[in-house]
C-alpha cells in the first residue's frame, strides 16, 4: 500500500500499486465510483493480460475505501481532482493513462482539465457527464443520496440507503465516511461549471467512453463522437462494466490506450 498527504490538515490518499514488468510503459491510474473502492473494482482488470505490464495505481478517493475520511473537506469534484493530483505528484506520476468509473470518471475529467500534465489518455466507464436533479423519491444511486440534507443523511439516510443498495455496493459503501459519501453525491449531482461534458469536449487527449449496450445511446452521443470521443457500447453488462464483462472491458480499454 502507498499513500500521500493531500490536504493541509494531513489527510492521506492511499492506493494499491502494481509495479508491472515494463518500465517503459506509461503509468496507469484507476479511479472508482461513488461509494466504491478501486481495489475490488479494478484489480482483475489491472492484471488482465491485455492491460498488465506497466505501473498501475488503484487509488481510493479521499473519503472512500482505504483513504482517510476527513470531515473538513468539501468533496467537490474539483476537491477530489486536486487531491488526486497531489497524490500523483507525490508518486512521481506524469502523463498517466486514466481508467475511471462513474463518479470517478467525472473526477478524471476535472483532473485532466485542471492538471493536464498528469493525464495522457482517458477511458471513462459509464461516467457522469451532466448535472442531475435529486429525486424526491430517493433511488439507490447518487441522486438518491443527494436528495437528503447532510443532517438527514447522517441521522437516518445512510441506514435507508443501505436497505436500497445491493450487497456488493454496500460492501464498499460502508467504508466511506458518511460526510464524504453525502457531499460527494451532492457535488456530483451539482456537477461543474462548465459541465463535465463541456470540459470533456475541450480536452486535448484521446478519450474512450464505455457504456452498457443495453442502456441505449448516451444523451448527446453523436456530439461526443463528432467531438472526437470514441464511444463504445459494451454488450452483456450493466453499470459495472469491468465486473460484468471483464473480457470486453479489457479489450476496449486496451484499444483506447493503443
Anisotropy-based shape: globular
CATH level 3 topology: Rossmann fold
Query: How many helix segments?
Result: 11
**Range of helix content:** 40-55%
Q: Note the gap between the termini.
A: 28 Å
CATH architecture: 3-Layer(aba) Sandwich
The tally of domains stands at: 1
Low-confidence stretches: none
Biggest sheet architecture: 8 strands, mixed
> Which range does the strand content fall in?
15-25%
SSE order in H/E notation?
EEEHEHEHEHHHHHEHEHH
What would the average pLDDT be, to the nearest integer? Answer: 95
Strand order of the main beta sheet, please? 1-2-4-3-5-6-7-8
GO molecular function: hydrolase activity
InterPro entries: AB_hydrolase_1, AB_hydrolase_fold, AB_hydrolase_sf
Pfam families: Abhydrolase_1
Protein name: Alpha/beta fold hydrolase
What do you see in this structure?
Strands 1-2-4-3-5-6-7-8 form an 8-stranded mixed sheet, sandwiched between helices. The mean pLDDT is 95. It is 40% helix and 17% strand. Strand 1 and strand 2 (12-18) form a beta hairpin. The chain has helices at 38-46, 77-91, 103-114, 142-146, 150-164, 167-173, 178-190, 196-202, 221-226, 241-244, 246-256, and strands at 2-5, 12-18, 28-31, 56-59, 96-101, 119-125, 207-212, 230-234. It is α/β, with parallel strands linked by helices and 258 residues long. The chain is globular. It has a single domain (2-133, 193-256), classed as Alpha/Beta hydrolase fold, catalytic domain (Rossmann fold). It contains 11 helices and 8 strands. The two termini are 28 Å apart. Helix 3 crosses helix 8 (196-202) and helix 5 (150-164) packs across helix 7 (178-190). One of its GO terms (molecular function) is hydrolase activity. This is Alpha/beta fold hydrolase.
Amino acid at each position: 500500500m502507498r499513500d500521500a498527504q493531500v490536504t493541509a490538515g494531513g489527510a492521506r490518499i492511499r492506493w494499491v500499486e502494481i509495479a508491472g514488468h515494463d518500465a517503459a510503459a506509461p503509468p496507469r491510474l484507476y479511479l472508482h465510483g461513488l461509494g466504491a473502492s478501486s481495489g475490488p473494482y479494478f484489480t482483475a482488470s489491472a492484471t488482465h493480460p491485455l492491460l498488465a505490464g506497466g505501473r498501475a495505481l488503484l487509488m481510493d478517493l479521499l473519503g472512500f475505501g482505504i483513504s482517510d475520511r476527513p470531515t473538513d473537506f468539501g468533496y467537490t469534484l474539483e476537491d477530489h481532482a486536486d487531491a488526486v493530483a497531489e497524490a500523483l505528484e507525490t508518486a512521481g506520476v506524469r502523463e498517466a493513462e486514466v481508467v475511471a468509473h462513474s463518479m470517478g470518471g467525472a473526477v478524471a475529467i476535472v483532473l485532466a482539465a485542471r492538471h493536464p500534465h498528469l493525464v495522457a489518455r482517458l477511458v471513462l466507464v459509464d461516467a457522469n457527464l451532466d448535472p442531475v436533479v435529486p429525486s424526491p423519491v430517493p433511488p439507490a444511486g447518487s441522486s438518491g443520496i443527494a436528495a437528503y440534507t447532510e443532517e438527514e443523511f447522517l441521522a437516518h439516510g445512510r441506514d435507508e440507503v443501505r436497505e436500497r443498495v445491493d450487497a456488493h455496493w454496500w460492501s464498499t459503501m460502508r467504508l466511506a465516511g458518511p460526510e464524504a459519501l453525502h457531499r460527494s453525491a451532492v457535488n456530483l449531482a451539482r456537477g461543474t461549471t462548465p459541465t463535465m461534458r463541456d470540459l470533456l469536449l475541450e480536452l486535448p487527449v484521446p478519450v474512450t467512453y464505455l457504456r452498457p449496450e443495453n442502456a441505449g445511446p448516451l444523451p448527446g452521443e453523436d456530439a461526443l463522437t463528432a467531438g472526437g470521443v470514441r464511444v463504445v457500447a459494451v454488450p452483456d453488462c450493466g453499470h459495472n462494466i469491468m465486473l460484468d464483462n471483464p473480457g470486453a472491458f479489457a479489450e476496449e480499454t486496451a484499444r483506447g490506450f493503443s
